[in-house]
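We store chain and fold; thus.
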Amino acid sequence: YRDESFEDQVFTIVGDKHSAQIVDAGGTVVMTAVVKGIPAKIEYTNADGTLAGKLKTNSIFSKKRLEFTLADGTEWAVVQSGARKQFYSVLEDDVPIAKLDLTDLALEKKYPVDVAESVDLPLALGLVWAINFAYLQTVAAGGGLAAT
C-alpha cells in the first residue's frame, strides 16, 4: 500500500489458512482474523478484542461470492471478475472500495491492491488475506473461487 499520508505506516500480515494477524510497523497486532466452522466463516477482531467484522461464503450461484459484514452493520461484497477470474473488487453499496489484481501472483509473488482512503486499512488487508488464500487454494485445485 503506497500513499504519502500513510508513508510511515507499514502493515505485515502473518498467517496461514486458519488465522492471521495484521501487525503494524512497531510490531503491535492491530487486528486478528480467525477461520471458524464449516462452511468457513472468518471473524475479524481489533487489538482490544472487539469484533470488527465477519466474512461468510455465499452461494456459488450468486454473483457475490463472499460477503463481509462490519461490526456496525455495513456490508461489503467481494466480486470476482475478469476472463480468467484473477480480478477481485470489494464493493460497498455497489461502489468499489478495494481492488485486487492477482494476475502476476504466481510469477512475482506479489500483486497490486488499491484501497479507498475511507476504508479501515488493517481490516481491508485482513480481507485481502482471505481472498489471497481462497485464490491460492483454487489455483492449486485447478478450479474457480472457493472461499475457505
